[in-house]
């Protein structure tokens, strides 16, 4: 009887471990992008582990700061000195232990929540990531106002972007510009059935793919 219990326990442990490993496995569609991030030394601190976990604000800020350092070939201290941004850090940022979060605020990449708070760790949605990626592109002097350059009358342009995704109506007003940018430049894609899923948690591997594509596009300018 004891042997049966032990055997069942081992089988259960194996199945749980297998499922857990599968859930954290990098998907095939993102392998190329992750390889590019690794080559550029822009990958997460823990590499490819926890690929399907939701990314946090802290993790994104670090990746964004590293990308800026790579693009401009300067450390973040030099970039902050040269930056035109003179934003005063609110208490929630000033007291944050991670230099990347403070630097990202001063460079205009993150603004925190509506009340100015930066929660740590702060899980991000897909529309939040779209905005943060757009702000990162702006910090790299990359033109992001693609909606202004599209041919057609203002109403035609609006109609086009209103139907960019089936759930475009669910995109928050403050995130629209970001979603438009990452879509026009193929930095982020629909999750399924032409849906952007703006309020869906954004996975680390999705951000890896997006940041790899952003880096590839921006690096050609420098």
Radius of gyration of CA atoms, rounded to a whole number: 20 Å
How many structural domains can be distinguished in the coordinates? 1
The DSSP helix count reads 11
Main structural class: mainly alpha
Helix content: 40-55%
Strand content: under 5%
Major beta-sheet overview: none
Shape: globular
Low-confidence stretches are 4-23
What is the strand tally? 0
* SSE pattern, N- to C-terminal: HHHHHHHHHHH
Instruction: Tell me, rounded to a whole number, the average pLDDT.
Output: 78
Separation of termini?
69 Å
Structure explained in plain terms:
This protein has 222 residues and is mostly helical. 53% of the residues lie in helices and 0% in strands. The chain is built from eleven helices and no strands. The chain has helices at residues 2-23, 31-39, 57-72, 76-82, 91-94, 99-106, 126-139, 146-149, 154-162, 176-184, 204-219. Helix 7 crosses helix 10. The longest helix is centred in the first third of the chain and has 22 residues, at 2-23.
Question: Which secondary structure elements does this structure contain, and how are they paired or packed?
Answer:
Layout: H1 2-23, H2 31-39, H3 57-72, H4 76-82, H5 91-94, H6 99-106, H7 126-139, H8 146-149, H9 154-162, H10 176-184, H11 204-219
Features:
222 residues, mainly alpha, 11 helices, 53% helix
